[in-house]
Specification:
Elements lengths: L1 H19 L1 E3 L2 H9 L6 H11 L4 E10 L2 E9 L5 E7 L5 E6 L2
Antiparallel strand pairs: 1-2, 2-3, 3-4, 4-5
Length: 102
């Protein structure tokens, strides 16, 4: 039983370690990063996201730090009503993920 308990504890720690690597950044911190040139301006990041799905509207944005990298998350809704989730590298605007939301 002791080995089983240890295994569950290790599994739980490993699972939560991955979650702890991402943290949401508040508006003040995001603006400081933008003003310092660490991340691109939000208008540029939004334009990069909209270029992937022309005619879409931005519904929500969020800036996170994941493993020392700044990720800009954008939720879009296209003209057909389909929702898209995009992740961009906030430092260079590269689209990292682009998938239809379920």
């Amino acid at each position: 039983m002791n080995k089983l308990t240890t295994l569950f504890a290790i599994t739980a720690l490993a699972a939560t370690a991955g979650i702890a690597q991402a943290r949401d950044l508040g508006p003040d911190e995001a603006l400081k990063l933008r003003d310092a040139g660490t991340i691109q301006h939000f208008d540029q990041l939004n334009e990069a996201a909209l270029a992937k799905h022309p005619g879409s509207k931005i519904e929500e944005t969020e800036l996170e730090e994941e493993y020392g990298r700044y990720i800009y998350q954008v939720e879009l809704r296209d003209a057909q009503g389909v929702q898209w989730d995009l992740e961009l590298d906030a430092g260079n605007g590269q689209v990292l993920k682009d998938h239809q939301d379920d």
